[in-house]
Amino acid sequence: MIKYELVAMGGTFDSFHKGHKILIKKAFQVGAKVIIGLTSDEFVSTQKKSHPVDAYQVRKKDLVDFLRELDVVKRTKIVTLNDPWGPTITNPAIEALVASEETKNTVKKINELRLTSGLKPLELITVQMVHADDYKRISSTRIREGEIDREGHVLNDKIEKKV
């Protein structure tokens, strides 16, 4: 059910996977319009990832392809993120932030920065981490290491499934 006029979310969206899809779907369930921050190549390079990350244009194409699949392109604005905050600390129209559990601390900082600027804090809509068939969370790192595919199916027979 749409509860907000404008929500925001952000990420690197590398190895675009099932977890990304669930996060994005949630944003469009609660927001009439969604600002999606996509990390720039420069910002990614400061994040000390343990693996290479696809170029911005590749990640953006994957994102836009999924938005077309959902038929929500007209409800979306994609912005380039050069820092962890993007428009969330300056745009008074943003009402909520859709984020995964692992980004709660960033959301706390965003709300602190909004308050110091005289803006209302954002509501937080938390999406639980999505797990693969082996009950470990889906991540771009695991996909790049060949453990799982983008849907969370285990690819490496050496990885045991929990019973």
Structure description:
By secondary structure, the protein is α/β, with parallel strands linked by helices. The protein has 2 domains: 4-130, 3-Layer(aba) Sandwich (Rossmann fold), CATH 3.40.50; 131-163, no CATH class. Helices cover 31% and strands 20% of the residues. The protein has helices at 18-30, 41-45, 56-70, 104-116, 140-144; strands at residues 4-11, 31-39, 76-81, 96-100, 123-127. It has a 5-stranded parallel β-sheet. β1 (4-11), α1 (18-30) and β2 (31-39) form a beta-alpha-beta unit. The longest helix is centred in the middle third of the chain and has 15 residues, at 56-70. The N and C termini lie far apart (35 Å). The model has no long low-confidence stretch (mean pLDDT 92).
By CATH, the topology of the largest domain is Rossmann fold
CATH architecture descriptor text of the largest domain = 3-Layer(aba) Sandwich
The radius of gyration is 16 Å
Largest sheet: 5 strands, parallel
**Name of the level-1 CATH class of the largest domain:** Alpha Beta
Overall pLDDT level: 92
List the strand order in the largest sheet. Answer: 3-2-1-4-5
Instruction: State the fourth-level CATH superfamily of the largest domain.
Output: HUPs
Tell me the strand percentage band: 15-25%
The shape is globular
Task: Please report the total strand number as a whole number.
Answer: 5
Question: How much helicity do the residues have?
Answer: 25-40%
Report low-confidence residues grouped into runs of 5 or more: none
Q: Strand pairing plus helix content: what structural class?
A: alpha/beta
The total domain count is 2
Name the helix and strand elements from N-terminus to C-terminus, one letter apiece.
Answer: EHEHHEEHEH
The number of helices is 5
Alpha-carbon distance between the two ends: 35 Å
